[in-house]
Structure formats: structure tokens, C-alpha cells
């Protein structure tokens, strides 16, 4: 080791925090209260001459290339630091595929030669922004909502609910309503739909939703979006009912509030009340006006009806709000925890290179107790 | 120009197996291999502002969060903001009735304005500034305070955890317990260690932990106003998603809360060969210069192949392909076309692993080559179209910028050589498409070049100056037709 490297070791470089979402990627430094950039999880692919989504892949090799290009963009266009010999905190869902995790690890450790990686799951990271050890985290993402019970800072993996009720479902529903109401085949691309969604749509309260369902949405103001030629009339119905898929119960009680309650049923009895009194609704989807209030209404209603009435004896639901914008909550959790431990929890590069294996909760190799007779020595 | 606006018809196979146009490739003079953006190491060289072309030392850039202190972007349309000056008459203070005469001098005040969308800093109530640059009010993240508290809290916990672990290790050294192995690592089991992190132990002495106020959950959730749905929606007052995300700290939802965005800096990158650690490109420090101190581009070292024209490819039919070869180097070049499978495998010199080597490795002195296994791939080359190579070696003269104006075309043209002009040469090749080539699929011919290369700067004087190198090129010939 040269003298210079020795000095570099003493001055620990600020680690970076990476949250690769399905739609948006958040990237920045630990110890900072907000990410440096929130950009679409896509990059310009010169070979295919189009913008390519990171999650658009068929083979592991393609995923590897996507990640290399995305990280290049993040490091050299946005945070402007060398990836080499710098630690990374990765925010990931506990249900990330092994293929994705291992490819990301390869790209980070071997392609970009980062010095260490800490893996944080979304649930724990979100809870960390509150300072409490036990919380029920409802994170509404692009593709799915993830309901994670975190008890004493450990996620209860068996109780996690992941209904496919993310903003994508809302967007598809909005597109359908707009098509019906405008009575034409609208070719709206995702950016326009997103724009309409975030700027005009809202989630009505439970009472209003019932009222709208019986009386129709004529009372809701409509608005015209877009400029000349491309304008779309966003009817009151579209504004108020776009997010309704999250609350539809006809299919097997598969609404988002149902998922929260089913998650509670899966949790140990002694944790249920605490969890219900420490709910955190977050994620990019939670920024939709009125959404949090509506989930609260629905929860308070559902708990009074079958089948939850007899199974869950919960009287109160209480809600947290995290000290950040909802769409960066998990990232901020990673920035706090990654900054506080100074990278002490990171898996160093040399350890990874020796085995090229990641610890994973789903793998018995790492989860079998040491004295268990099935554990390999 | 063709390289900028057209699809890449001719691609070279990089030493790592990626296929890229020659303009995207580098040539390492020390390894004598083609390299590309995928297999080299990128490094941040210098920070600069692309608007005012000011350099910023990287330590200062870190401090200023990679933002220029004098340039601002429009928060509404992201165009650069301009500073406008106005003259204002200092307002007479009614309290001090007889104001002094010299105070009546009109004063210059400045505000920011966007020439593109007409947004101004006055729109959002930012007061005009008495100086032209700087002095604009800095906004702090509204959550900065709470975030700092959280940091303190978790730092104290991390500290305590470390201490406890040390104690435990000391105590349990004799019976190296299972507990340590369980809590030692990251992952789910590691969560059990953090478990105590969430609920600090009662004997905790740290004041940071004791004074920390946990987030309080409430029964009330912020509701929308009752008449929200019947209110008029004024889209002009609601920000778009790009406007919100342009400043991740405060993501303003109201147009009235937008603030000028300090312009993000850009970087100049230098690039390095991973194999030998030599620089492939190194930019000049001056942000206004687009020149390089080191610029080892393949375009200057590897023979360039261009398509002149070709006949449509049909299954089982022989067709003609006209190619142009160019020698970009300052030395004469001998080129021979060969089949891609005739390119000799470059065997990695596996040095015998003696004790010294393993000692070096354990001391971490040996070069880290772990990237090779993930970066390098075997390219899959299409084989449906066979190029009938002429058994000929062509000599290409060196590049001579003056020769461009000469008109002395050599007269050794024949069936194969169409024409020749200074360092360029046009070839007529015969292609045979496989009978089973599927109609409608892309027709790609593969040809390999064997060429001589003179290294003007050999790493050591003992090494030879002249080399025989190989490169494989894929040529896009449209689609196979009926
Ligand atoms: Zn390459
Ligand atoms: Zn500037
Ligand atoms: Zn503007
Ligand atoms: Zn090299």
C-alpha cells in the first residue's frame, strides 16, 4: 500500500446512496437530507437509438449493460465523483430478484470497483427516517405497493404484502377513463399521463367517493391539459377516480387497505397494535393529494367489517410523517443510516471478491442458525 | 458527419467483445488493443460550469454541492437565467423627513429573468439584489434540522453498538459464541443487531440518544379541503414533474414557490486503460478548450472501413460489396483481409505462480484483475454471409494531409482494387450469402483485417516498433431479401 492510499483510507470518502426505482432513480451522498438527483431510470442507448429503461431486460447480460450505463450517467453526470474506492448504500426491496441483486453487486464491486456496499431494504430505510424501531411501512411505488411490518428494526419477511397497486395501475386506469370521456383513441405517452396525474388528479375522501359513486362526478371540476393540438379534456371523473384501482375490493379483497390489514393478520399478535399505531404511508405514489387520508378512512372502515372485525382487535390507527418528501423517503433513510455508521456495515470489496456471494435472507446458507445440523461448516 | 447522424453500419469488435463504431473506440498504445467506453476506467478530471466556463477545484465543488455560484437556471423551463438591471429611486423614508440630497441618486438593482419563458425572480417575491452576481438568498432544506437530529441519534447508536460489540468480544473471547457470528454481518441477521439500535438499551449513557425525540404518530391525517373537488384547477399554478424534481430538496408543488436553480456543474473525464493503467484520453484543464493532452482514439490508429455500396443480399447468391479502407496513421500500412476465425487468439501470458507471486498477492501488490471476468465477453459474430477474401496484401500509404489536393491516382487498379488515392483504397469484394439465410433478418457480413502498425512510442527501447495487429469488423448490409 502506498503512502497516498494510506491517507485516502484515513479520510473516509462520503458514501453514495442509490435507490434504483422502477420509474425514478434517486442518487446522492450519505449524510445529506435529500438526494442530489431524482431522474428517470432510463438512459440513452446508442446501439438501439432510443431511451432504454434499466428494468427493460431479457438476459442477465443485458441487465448488466443497463446497470453499467445507468451508473455511468449517475456518477459522471449527476454526482460527479469517481465510483472507485467509494462506498455505496443500496436501497432495495426485499423481494428484488436474485438475478438483479447479484448483477448489481457485480457491476458495483467489479465493474466500478467500489470499496464496499451496504444493502438496506425499503421498509427498514423508511422506518429509519422516523427514529422508531417498530413501524408498518406502506410504500407505494411505481409498479407495486409494498406493505412491510418492521418490528424492532427487523422486517417481518413472512408478513410482507406486495399487491400490484402502484402508480402504473393508476396511470393505466386514468388512460382508460380519458379515452372513454374524450371518445377518441388518445395516444398519450407516459410522460403526459404522469403530468395529468400529478397536476390534476386527487383522491376523494371515503364519504365523497361514495357520494360520487352514486351521484356521478358532475360536481367535480374538469380541466383541459396540454397546449394547442394535443389538448386533453380531463373530466371530473378522471380527476377523482384515477386512483380508484387502489381501493377496489371486488377482486378477492385485493385493495391496498386490505393488504395493510392482511399484513397485520400475518404479524404476531403482540405486535399488531403497535404496528397499527405506527403506520407510515410513503413512496412516490403517496404524494397524490388525499391518498393518505383516504387510506386512513378505508382502514377505519374495514376494521369494523368482516373478516377483520373478529380477527384484528385494533381500535386506533396512527400515522407518521417522515422528515422528507415522500418520494425520497427510503433514500433519506439510507442516507441517515449509511452516514451514521460511517460505512461500518458495508460488505468490503475484498470479502465479496473472495466468494462472490451476497448475503440474502432467502438463502438458507446465510439464514440457518450456526448450531443447526443443516448448516454447512 | 455520417458518424454523428447515421446509424452505425460498420462496427468494430472491441477487445472486450463489445461492438461499436470506430468513433467510439480507443486504442491503447501500450497494450496495442482496441478499448471502448465499456472496458476502460473513467475518472473525473476537473469540474467546470458549462455556462460561464469557470473551473472549480474539486474540493470547492464538493463544498458547493457541484453547483456554480454565479449561474442560475430557470426553474420553470430550465433555460439559463440572465441578470437584468433596473434603476430604482431610493424610497424616501417618511420618518426622516429631510432626507439627504445625495441619497436621491438612483440605484442599480438586479433581478434574474428568463429570456425563454419570461419567468423572473420577482414573480416569486425574491427581492432585487444590489450586486450583479451572488447574494441571492440561499434556501435550506426544510427538513435539515430534523435530519441533523436523526444523524446525531444514529451516530450515537452506531457508537454504542460498536462499544457493546467490543465489550462482548472481550468477554466472550474464550467461548467464541454464536451470538457474534449472528450479529456480525449485514443482511437479515444483521437486523437483529440493529434491533437494539431501534430501542437503545436502558443503560445508554449517551445524551444524543436520551435527548432524541422519536417521531410521534397521530390519528389525524392531512385531509383535502371539503370543496377541493369543486374548486377550479389552474394548471398555470401547479408545477410539472420535471420542475419538481429539478430541485430534489424542496420539490415545489406551487409555481409561486419555484426558486432559481443554481446551475449544476459538469466534469471533464479522463480515461484509463484498465489493463495497463495508462491514460487513453486526458482533457486540457481549460474548460473552454475541447482539446486533449492525450487522445488515443482508434480513429487515429486503426484502419477505417467504410461502405461505398453493396448489392442486395439474397440467400445463396453471390453479390458485390464495395468498401473503402483508410490508413489514418503516419506510417505505411500493409493490410490483408482474413476470415474472422483466422484471427489468432491472443493467449494471456500466464506467468508461473511462484511463491513470490502469491506473496505479492497476499500483500495486495498484484494488480487487481477481477474486472476482467465481468467486462470481457466473447462476441457472437453472425456467419450467414461469407466474404470471399482476395489473397492479397494491400499497401496503404501514410496519411498525408497535403496529398488531399494531389490528383495522382495510382494506376494499379484491377478487379479488386477499384481506385486508390493517397492513404485510401476502394475494394470490390464478393459476398456469398448462405442458402439457409432467413429472409427478413439483418444481413451482416464479418471481415477481419490483419494490418501492420508502427508504434512510435514503444514503452521500452527493447520492444519492437512494428507489430502485426488484427481487428474484426461487422458490416451492416440491410436485410436479407427474397
Ligand atoms: Zn471494450
Ligand atoms: Zn457558471
Ligand atoms: Zn424559463
Ligand atoms: Zn493498455
UniProtKB/TrEMBL annotation, chain A:
Alphabetized SMART domains for the sequence: ACTIN (SM00268)
SUPFAM superfamilies according to UniProt: Actin-like ATPase domain
InterPro entries: Actin, ATPase_NBD
Protein family: Belongs to the actin family.
Protein name: Actin-related protein 10
TrEMBL record, chain B:
Alphabetized UniProt keyword annotations: Acetylation, Coiled coil, Cytoplasm, Cytoskeleton, Isopeptide bond, Phosphoprotein, Ubl conjugation
Ribonucleoprotein in keyword set: no
Family named by the database record: Belongs to the dynactin subunit 4 family.
One of the record's GO cellular component terms: dynactin complex
Compartments, as annotated in UniProt: Cytoplasm, Cell cortex; Cytoplasm, Cytoskeleton, Microtubule organizing center, Centrosome; Cytoplasm, Cytoskeleton, Stress fiber; Cytoplasm, Myofibril
Protein name: Dynactin subunit 4
InterPro entries: DCTN4 (IPR008603)
A UniProt-annotated Pfam family: Dynactin_p62
Subunit structure, as described in the record: Subunit of dynactin, a multiprotein complex part of a tripartite complex with dynein and a adapter, such as BICDL1, BICD2 or HOOK3. The dynactin complex is built around ACTR1A/ACTB filament and consists of an actin-related filament composed of a shoulder domain, a pointed end and a barbed end. Its length is defined by its flexible shoulder domain. The soulder is composed of 2 DCTN1 subunits, 4 DCTN2 and 2 DCTN3. The 4 DCNT2 (via N-terminus) bind the ACTR1A filament and act as molecular rulers to determine the length. The pointed end is important for binding dynein-dynactin cargo adapters.
Major location category of this protein: cytoplasm
Source species of the chain: Pieris brassicae
Source organism, top-level taxon: Eukaryota
Amino acid at each position: 500500500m502506498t503512502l497516498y492510499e494510506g491517507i485516502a483510507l484515513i479520510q473516509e470518502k462520503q458514501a453514495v446512496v442509490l435507490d434504483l426505482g422502477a420509474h425514478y432513480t434517486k442518487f446522492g451522498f450519505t449524510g445529506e437530507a435529500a438526494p442530489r438527483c431524482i431522474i428517470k431510470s432510463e438512459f440513452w442507448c446508442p446501439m438501439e437509438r432510443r431511451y432504454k429503461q434499466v428494468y427493460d431486460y431479457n438476459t442477465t447480460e443485458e441487465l448488466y449493460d443497463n446497470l453499467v450505463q445507468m451508473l455511468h450517467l449517475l456518477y459522471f453526470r449527476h454526482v460527479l465523483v469517481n465510483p472507485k474506492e467509494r462506498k455505496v448504500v443500496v436501497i432495495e426491496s426485499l423481494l428484488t430478484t436474485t438475478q438483479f441483486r447479484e448483477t448489481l453487486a457485480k457491476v458495483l464491486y467489479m465493474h466500478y470497483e467500489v470499496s464496499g456496499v451496504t444493502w438496506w431494504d425499503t421498509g427498514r430505510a423508511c422506518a429509519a427516517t422516523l427514529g422508531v424501531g417498530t413501524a408498518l411501512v406502506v410504500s407505494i411505488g411505481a409498479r407495486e405497493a409494498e406493505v412491510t411490518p418492521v418490528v424492532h428494526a427487523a422486517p417481518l419477511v413472512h408478513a410482507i404484502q406486495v399487491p400490484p397497486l402502484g402508480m402504473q395501475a393508476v396511470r393505466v386506469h386514468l388512460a382508460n377513463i380519458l379515452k372513454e370521456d374524450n371518445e377518441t383513441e388518445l395516444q398519450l405517452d407516459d410522460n403526459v399521463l404522469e403530468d395529468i396525474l400529478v397536476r390534476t388528479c386527487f383522491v376523494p375522501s371515503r364519504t365523497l367517493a361514495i357520494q360520487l359513486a352514486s351521484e356521478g362526478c358532475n360536481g367535480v371540476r374538469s380541466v383541459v391539459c396540454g397546449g394547442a393540438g394535443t389538448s386533453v379534456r380531463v373530466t371530473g371523473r378522471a380527476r377523482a377516480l384515477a386512483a380508484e384501482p387502489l381501493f377496489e375490493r371486488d377482486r378477492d379483497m385485493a385493495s391496498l387497505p386490505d393488504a395493510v390489514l392482511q399484513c397485520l393478520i400475518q404479524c404476531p399478535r403482540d405486535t399488531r397494535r403497535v404496528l397499527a399505531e405506527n403506520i407510515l404511508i410513503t413512496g412516490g405514489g403517496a404524494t397524490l393529494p388525499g391518498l393518505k387520508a383516504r387510506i386512513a378512512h378505508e382502514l377505519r372502515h374495514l376494521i369494523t367489517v368482516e373478516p377483520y372485525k373478529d380477527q384484528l382487535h385494533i381500535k386506533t390507527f396512527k400515522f407518521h410523517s417522515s422528515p422528507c418528501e415522500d418520494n425520497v423517503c427510503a433514500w433519506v433513510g439510507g442516507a441517515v443510516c449509511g452516514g451514521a455508521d460511517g460505512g461500518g456495515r458495508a460488505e468490503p470489496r475484498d470479502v465479496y471478491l473472495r466468494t462472490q456471494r451476497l448475503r440474502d435472507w432467502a438463502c438458507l446458507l446465510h439464514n440457518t442458525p450456526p448450531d443447526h445440523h443443516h448448516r454447512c461448516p | 458527419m455520417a458518424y454523428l447522424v447515421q446509424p452505425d453500419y460498420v462496427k468494430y469488435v472491441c477487445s472486450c467483445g463489445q461492438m461499436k463504431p470506430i468513433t467510439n473506440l480507443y486504442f491503447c498504445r501500450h497494450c496495442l488493443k482496441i478499448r471502448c467506453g465499456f472496458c476502460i476506467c473513467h475518472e473525473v478530471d476537473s469540474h467546470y460550469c458549462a455556462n460561464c466556463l469557470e473551473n472549480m477545484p474539486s474540493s470547492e465543488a464538493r463544498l458547493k454541492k457541484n453547483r456554480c455560484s454565479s449561474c442560475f437556471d430557470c426553474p420553470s423551463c430550465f433555460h439559463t437565467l440572465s441578470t437584468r438591471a433596473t434603476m430604482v429611486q431610493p424610497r424616501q423614508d417618511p420618518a426622516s423627513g429631510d432626507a439627504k440630497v445625495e441619497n436621491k441618486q438612483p440605484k442599480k438593482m438586479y433581478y434574474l429573468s428568463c429570456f425563454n419563458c419570461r419567468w423572473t425572480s420577482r414573480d416569486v417575491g425574491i427581492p432585487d439584489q444590489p450586486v450583479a452576481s451572488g447574494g441571492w438568498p440561499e434556501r435550506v432544506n426544510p427538513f435539515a434540522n430534523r435530519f441533523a437530529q436523526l444523524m446525531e441519534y444514529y451516530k450515537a447508536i452506531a457508537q454504542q453498538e460498536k462499544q457493546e460489540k467490543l465489550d462482548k468480544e472481550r468477554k466472550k473471547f474464550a467461548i467464541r459464541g454464536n451470538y457474534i457470528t449472528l450479529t456480525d454481518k449485514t443482511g437479515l441477521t444483521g437486523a437483529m443487531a440493529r434491533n437494539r439500535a431501534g430501542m437503545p438499551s436502558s443503560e445508554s449513557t449517551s445524551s444524543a440518544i436520551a435527548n432524541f425525540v422519536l417521531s410521534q404518530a397521530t390519528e389525524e391525517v392531512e385531509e383535502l379541503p371539503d370543496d377541493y373537488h369543486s374548486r377550479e384547477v389552474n394548471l398555470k399554478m401547479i408545477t410539472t414533474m420535471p420542475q419538481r424534481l429539478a430541485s430534489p430538496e424542496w420539490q415545489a408543488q406551487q409555481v409561486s414557490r419555484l426558486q432559481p436553480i443554481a446551475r449544476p456543474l459538469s466534469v471533464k473525464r479522463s480515461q484509463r486503460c484498465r489493463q495497463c493503467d495508462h491514460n487513453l484520453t486526458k482533457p486540457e484543464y481549460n474548460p473552454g478548450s475541447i482539446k486533449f493532452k492525450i487522445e488515443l482514439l482508434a480513429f487515429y490508429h486503426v484502419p477505417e472501413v467504410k461502405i461505398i455500396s453493396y448489392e442486395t443480399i439474397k440467400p445463396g447468391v453471390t453479390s458485390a460489396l464495395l468498401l473503402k479502407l483508410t490508413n489514418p496513421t503516419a506510417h505505411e500500412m500493409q493490410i490483408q483481409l482474413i476470415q474472422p476465425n483466422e484471427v489468432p487468439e491472443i493467449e494471456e501470458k500466464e506467468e508461473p505462480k511462484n511463491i513470490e507471486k502469491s506473496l505479492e498477492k497476499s500483500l495486495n501488490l498484484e494488480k487487481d484483475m477481477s474486472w476482467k471476468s465481468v467486462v470481457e465477453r466473447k462476441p457472437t459474430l453472425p456467419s450467414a454471409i461469407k466474404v470471399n477474401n482476395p489473397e492479397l496484401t494491400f499497401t496503404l500509404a501514410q496519411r498525408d494531409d497535403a496529398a488531399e489536393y494531389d490528383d495522382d491516382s495510382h494506376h494499379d487498379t484491377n478487379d479488386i482494387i477499384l481506385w486508390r488515392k493517397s492513404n485510401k483504397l476502394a475494394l470490390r469484394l464478393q459476398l456469398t450469402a448462405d442458402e439457409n439465410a432467413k429472409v427478413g433478418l439483418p444481413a451482416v457480413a464479418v471481415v477481419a483485417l490483419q494490418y501492420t502498425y508502427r508504434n512510435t512510442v514503444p514503452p521500452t527501447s527493447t520492444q519492437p516498433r512494428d507489430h502485426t495487429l488484427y481487428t474484426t469488423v461487422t458490416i451492416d448490409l440491410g436485410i436479407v431479401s427474397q
